[in-house]
Structure formats: structure tokens, C-alpha cells
Design brief:
By secondary structure, the chain is of the alpha/beta class. The chain has 18 helices and 10 strands. Helix 5 runs parallel beside helix 7 and helix 5 crosses helix 18.
């Protein structure tokens, strides 16, 4: 039927649009008439003579008609605009949101890979620079709420995806809602709303890929968030002492130096959106985050790794501030970069390394958990021709973690 067409639905009664459109149309015709009357050689010669015979200037009447018509046109368009936007969002915020989105839509194309808290903090900074950020998130986590849901529904890990969706979302209160963790409720206890949200979308769509596409649309992201693999895969590590450890949580607990990391199966399916984003990127950012179980794990699918090897974009690695027990014990900044290059098959073009002193109280607290500041020696970086952005990248406070705003400035500096 004709009324099922979106265009014709504007004519349905009660839309509160037709009256304002008619007012704007009347204003436009009145202004057009005024222009004709006021112009030399007016298209209304008889009307002009009639006005002159009664002592009225056709030019003056024309100017008044243009002014009245323009006023009606503006009032009609304004009322129609507010009537439409009132059902969508707060009309007073629309100009600001439109301007911001248009400005950010012209920003650089950036792909950020990793997982956990580190990647989400980077994204909070990048969304102030561009709406063209694509987050590619490791999905091999097997602990906590994520692990329970992964085993129950046979899906990739959702926890880090939720953190990144929350970081890029512009929907009101979405970050708070997505990261809300249930503290009671039997089976609900320990789960986050965001984890359950993604699992629900998976159940509704029957596809993990479609679940993520739907989440990207619903959450009004300044960018996009995709899994590094769209089917379940297990993280496997070969340690320096010859042991083979399977699973992210056991790898962290194994206590040995990781020689090689790989997936089982080795080449899980990858969403086409991931590969297109890497191909079109101007900058690829790896990290921050757990070096092996988040950053390297994010590009282990063969299709992702091959796309990163081919990309003409500059590749930037954000080196962690502190070592991690069971993953990077005793590793300095260059050892972090070397481990990444060994798995990726190419060296990064640049690295961000925190070199400012970390307050003693924070150092002592982290040392109790076996974590120490990552040491930095510029010489091996220079020998490899890797540009290093050094300075203070720590967020003020009681923790040793990256500041989103400082990382943003480093990225902007690298992009020029």
C-alpha cells in the first residue's frame, strides 16, 4: 500500500509536520513574489501600475513581501525541524551533536588493536580526535563472567568488546549501563549488563557478527568495535622451558617466559569490516594492554596478521608503563617491541614509551604484586630506526595507567 512507503507517511494525520511545511512553503512563495515585484522589469506590470495609481511603490511592497516571506519560511522550517527532532532527542543538544559528528567524521582513519582496560582507555582519547576509529579486540579471555558465557554459549569472549563499546559510545549513560556488574541474583551475580546484552543479541540474530553490527548501531559509536575473530578460539603459549600452556588464564598463571603465542584453530573467521578498516587505515595503534594475552592475541588470526603486514599505514606500539607478572617479568621497552615484532612479522614504525618518574608510593604498591616500571634504553630503537615518543603518559592518581588525553596528544603528534 502507498502508506507503507516512508515518503508518503509524512502525509499521515497527527505528524505535526504538514502544517509547518505549508507555512514554510507559503513564506517561500511570498518571498519569491516580492523579489519579482521589486525587481526591474517586474513580471507583474499590471499589479505594479495598480499600486502606483494608489500611491504605493512596487519596490517597497516587494521588499516588504520578501521580508514577510523570509520570516514565514524561517519560522516554518524551525518549527518543522523541532517537531521532527523532539521525538528523537533533546532538540537543544542537536546542533552541538551534529557539529561534533561532522567535525569528527573528517578525522583520520585509525585502527587500534588490543583488549582490556588499556585499549578502552586509548579509545576514550581517540574519540576526541576522530569518528573513524576502528577497535579490533582480542576475544580469547576465558575468566570471570566472560568465561562463563563463553562456555555456556560457545561464542568468543565478550568482556573486552563491552569495555570498548562503552568507551566509544555516545548514547546517554551507555558506558555506565554497559559496565554495570550484578552483585546479587544467583546466576546473574558477577555478570555485567554489557556481557548479557551481547549474548542476547547473539541469541536474537543467530550470528556473532550480526550481534556486533547491531550493537554498533544501537550504541551510537564514534567509530566501530569488532572482534579480532568471530568464532571461538583458544590461546596457546609455548614457554621458554618447553611447556605448552592452553588458555589465557593458565598462561598468566604459568610463570614462564612466553616464546611463542598462537591460536587453536590457527585461522578463525574474521569479519570483513576488520580487514577493510586495516586496508584503509592511516595509522595502526597496538596497545596498551597485556602484551601477550591482549595486544599480540588481537592480531593472531592469520587474516588480521597478513593485513597488518601489508598495510601502508604507520604502525605505532604503545608500551606498557609496568611489567606484568607471568607475562613480561624483567622485559624492558625494547623487549616488548621485539616480542610484538616476532609475532607480527614486521617492526612497528614508532613506539610510545613512558619515561617520567613514577611516584615512589605507587612503585611500592605495584612492587608488592611483582610489577615494576618498564625500563627504557633508546639505543636499540635507534639501531632499528624506530621513532620513539617519550615523556609523561601516566594519568594522575593512585594507579600506573595511561592517560587517554596524553595518548591522544602523542597520536596527534605522530599524525602531524
Amino acid at each position: 500500500m502507498i502508506w507503507k512507503s516512508p515518503s508518503w507517511r509524512w502525509l499521515l494525520p497527527g505528524m505535526r509536520v504538514k502544517r509547518y511545511a505549508a507555512l514554510a512553503g507559503l513564506g517561500f512563495l511570498l518571498a519569491l513574489f516580492g523579489v519579482g515585484l521589486a525587481s526591474a522589469g517586474a513580471p507583474f506590470p499590471e499589479l505594479a501600475r495598480w499600486l502606483l495609481s494608489r500611491g504605493y511603490s512596487p519596490v517597497a511592497v516587494g521588499v516588504l513581501s520578501v521580508a514577510a516571506g523570509t520570516l514565514l519560511l524561517v519560522l516554518g522550517l524551525r518549527a518543522m525541524n523541532r517537531s521532527i527532532l523532539a521525538v528523537l532527542t533533546d532538540p537543544d543538544r542537536v546542533p552541538e551533536l551534529v557539529y561534533r559528528r561532522r567535525r569528527l567524521a573528517a578525522g583520520p582513519r585509525i585502527v587500534a588493536l588490543g583488549g582490556g582496560t588499556g585499549l578502552s582507555r586509548l579509545l576514550k582519547g581517540l574519540k576526541r580526535l576522530t569518528a573513524n576509529t576502528t577497535a579490533v579486540v582480542a576475544v580469547t579471555d576465558d575468566g570471570g563472567s566472560t568465561g562463563r558465557l563463553r562456555r555456556a554459549f560457545d561464542i568468543p569472549a565478550v568482556g573486552d568488546l563491552v569495555d570498548c563499546l562503552a568507551a566509544l559510545s555516545e548514547a546517554p549513560r551507555a558506558p555506565e549501563l554497559m559496565q554495570h556488574r550484578f552483585a546479587r541474583g544467583g546466576e546473574l551475580k558477577g555478570h555485567t549488563f554489557g556481557n548479557l546484552f551481547l549474548v542476547t543479541l547473539f541469541e536474537l540474530t543467530g550470528s556473532f557478527d550480526e550481534a556486533l553490527r547491531t550493537a554498533n548501531r544501537l550504541l551510537a559509536l564514534l567509530g566501530s568495535v569488532w572482534p579480532s575473530a568471530s568464532e571461538p578460539a583458544v590461546l596457546v603459549a609455548r614457554l621458554a622451558d618447553g611447556r605448552e600452556v592452553e588458555g589465557e588464564t593458565p598462561i598468566r598463571a604459568a610463570g614462564g617466559r612466553v616464546e611463542r603465542l598462537y591460536l587453536r584453530p590457527a585461522s578463525p573467521a574474521v569479519m570483513p569490516e576488520v580487514l577493510r578498516a586495516i586496508e584503509a587505515a592511516e595509522l595502526v595503534v597496538l596497545g596498551p594492554g597485556s602484551l601477550f594475552t591482549s595486544v599480540i592475541a588481537s592480531f593472531l588470526p592469520e587474516a588480521v596478521r597478513e593485513a597488518l603486514r601489508r598495510t601502508p599505514a604507520r604502525v605505532l606500539q604503545v608500551v606498557n608503563l609496568m611489567t606484568e607478572p607471568g607475562e613480561t617479568d624483567g622485559m624492558d621497552a625494547f623487549a616488548h617491541v621485539e616480542a610484538l615484532a616476532r609475532h607480527l612479522g614486521r617492526w612497528p614504525d614508532a613506539a610510545v614509551v613512558h619515561t617520567a618518574p613514577i611516584p615512589e608510593a605507587i612503585r611500592r604498591r605495584y612492587a608488592e604484586e611483582g610489577q615494576y616500571p618498564v625500563a627504557f634504553d633508546p639505543r636499540p630503537f635507534a639501531e632499528r630506526g624506530i621513532e620513539v615518543l617519550t615523556g609523561d603518559f601516566r594519568e594522575e592518581g593512585r594507579l600506573a595507567q595511561h592517560d587517554p588525553e596524553k595518548l591522544l596528544r602523542a597520536v596527534a603528534r605522530l599524525l602531524g
